[in-house]
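Appendix B. Chain record.
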Amino acid sequence: MKFPKQSLALLLVLSLVFATAPGGFAYQTDDATTPAPVLAAQQTPEQLRQLVAPIALYPDALVAQILAAATYPTEIVEADRWMQQHPDLKGQQLGDEVDKQSWDPSVKALTQFPSVLANMDKNLSWTSSLGDAYVSQQQAVMDAVQVMRQRAQKAGNLKNTPQQTVTTQGQTIVIEPANPDIVYVPAYDPWLVYGAPLPVWPGWYPVPGIFIGGPEIAFGVGFGIGLFGGFGWGWHHWGSDWHHHAVIYNHNTYISHSRTFINRDNFGHHGGEIHGGPATRGFAGAQHGFTVPHGQPGTHSGAFSGFDHGGIARSNSSRGHSSFGGGFHGGGGFHGGGGFHGGGGRR
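Structure tokens predicted for this chain:
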């Protein structure tokens, strides 16, 4: 049986159309042009514990700053590169210049701790995953931090030192600076410090200043935070509300307005949500007794969006640079060759 050439060509075209159409035409509806919401992949409790392991033993306020800032991974990259370009800025001068930037208050706060900022930049995939998890599984992330603290305490590695105070309130472990004007960032191996070894986060880069080999915790030179007290993003404006499983900023539950993890359908943070467009950051929640800021948080420029777990920002950065080569800022920082105090020395 012979087909005319025109009929054969039409048959081939129709066959290709049906073969490539998703799900076939029978399932097409008027809503076909509306993209389905992108859902965050829910991580298991053990995965979340691995995710928070590098920061779970930090002071409560620093944990709060990191979780909030992790929702702005592109700003983390920008801030760390900016710090590298301004190594001579210190103290009040550093604070004044940081205050002029358009970054989220949490990102500005981390400029007080350049080694922490460098770590989040160097381990950008981890940072992005942490921010994504906090957005979509806030309560579970906060719970994971407490579980890891309990493990470290049971292993004998989390205790009072001259640098920090560790208190247990019911089932909650609180970590605070021993001196309210000086913050020490603990240095440890996040895959060994909790007792039973944890799987290393894929591609993890151990940043000097906050990482040491072995199961113990050590401390470098403290960061004086008094010079940053006059800024609305300074240390005393942050805290962790373990009872309500939330980050606290300026008396209230912190609400991120990052566009990075947009199109999620489960952004709830005690009644708040992450909005898609540039907007002044808002906050919800009860009063928590934290210091009132001396300035307005400002607005988000919305310059970066669509971050893909390190992909976009990584293309704009080079792994060969970090802010830990020179002196760290903010009241006497770690200088690469300085020793650690308490719980073992540098390794």
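Further analysis of this model is presented in Appendix C.
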